[in-house]
Amino acid sequence: MNLSVTAPPGSGQTSLPASTPKLQSIQGLRFYAAMMVLIFHLPHVGGTEPPFYLAWTKIYFASGVRLFFEISAFTLMYSTLRYIEQKDWIKIYAIRRFARIAPLFYCFVGLNAVLNYVYFGQSLDWSVVLNLSFLFNFYADTIETISSSVWAGWTIGAEMVFYGFLPLLLGILTGLRPALVFLIVGIMISYAGIVAPHAAPYPFIPVQMAFPTQIQFFAWGVLAYWLYKRWQAPGLRHPRALEFGLVAMFVACVICMSFIHLKPAGSSIALLYFVDGPLYFSVCLLQALFPWGFFSNRFVAFWGERSFSIYLVHGPVLIHAKPLYEWLVQKLGSDAGYFASLALSITIILAISAVTYWAIERPGMRAGARLVAKMGWMGAKPATAIA
User: Fold this and answer.
1) Which residues contact 200 (CB under 8 A, 6 or more apart)?
2) Which pTM value belongs to this model?
3) Angstrom distance (rounded) from CA 230 to CA 223
């Protein structure tokens, strides 16, 4: 529904759409991305090994973060382009982004600092400054990882770099062709990031986590948005060939992934990076154009809005519940113990995430919306989620 709002006389503002309806199908994908990351980390962090027929989740479900990146780029294009003609739109954009990410992330930075002091006697150091400024994606520390004090927080650093570049990109990526050029350039940059560590004395893990290595996934999301917009033009009917082609792309990517484990370790990681891009591109575009209820029902859309909480909460839960997982495996056996551990983890993480969303994320977004409204943008209102 398109509602226009007229700004107060003399405010210098223009009439804007009051709201852009969220794509529930895309929102639901966030939940599955969060679950992929949780399942990937359960054996690596919780120490609970999956049955042999699920062993592939220990490798392939790491790509849940790359699905997050593509969804993020898609939804940011979808939500931001509606107000770029507004006066001070970059300020509006910056406030919305900060209000969406900073409150919960800062809480976890503070919690981690307190725990480090209580249990290890560590005082505040340079990493806290890097995290509060969201600059940590530019810095690799001595343990060969991106220096986020929040567990698995490196993805937030990559997201924030993209957020910083997006206002510039919006002036360049004005259609399908520029988006395609951006994708080609992004793939070349990502390829350099993946290949370089094998020929240079840089630790591989930080290079994987750095924004340049991940840029192609944001580019895939941008391209998906422009294709979605083109195929959503009034009066344009989606040909069956389009749906068939996207499904065929998805199937082809899955088949390619099934053979990746036969390659040497280094090339396997590189191949995964370049299969994941079109794989999740096809998923996002399929769900936007031809929504499937499995990905767009109320349950997954509800938890998709809380996926940021799920992502930040899951690491500490898996770490501290490890003794409980070991006990379950001893009592139930390896396979049943794994499924019991997974079910328990999901239950606890969702419960905590519901609280953190209600107590931290939602008030932060409302505060950001109120601040934007004070700037005279009459279209701003407290939303349940800021894409």
Assistant:
1) none
2) 0.87
3) 11
What is the per-residue pLDDT across 314-353, written as a single tens digit (0 to 9) for each? 999 999 999 999 999 999 999 999 999 999 999 999 999 9
First to last CA, the chain: 18
Residue reference for tokens 């344009």: 236
CA 291 to chain centre: 20
Q: Are 21 and 59 in contact (CB under 8 A)?
A: no
232 is written with which tokens? 């959503």
Strand partners, 140: 146
Rounded (5°) CA angle 93-131-317? 105
* Poorest-pLDDT segment among 15-19, 24-28, 128-132, 365-369: 15-19
Q: Per-residue b/e over 82-110, b at no fewer than 16 CB within 10 Å?
A: bbeebebbeebbebbbbbbbbbbbebbbe
Burial class (CB in 10 A: 0-12, 13-18, 19+), 66: buried
H helices, E strands: number in the chain: 17, 2
CB 91 within 8 A of CB 180: no
The DSSP output letter for 4 is E
Cβ(284)–Cβ(28) below 8 Å? no
Residue type at position 247: V
CA neighbor of 158 nearest in space, from 208, 104, 89, 107: 208
CB 130 within 8 A of CB 105: no
User: For residues 179 and 379, which has the higher predicted lDDT (pLDDT)?
Assistant: 179
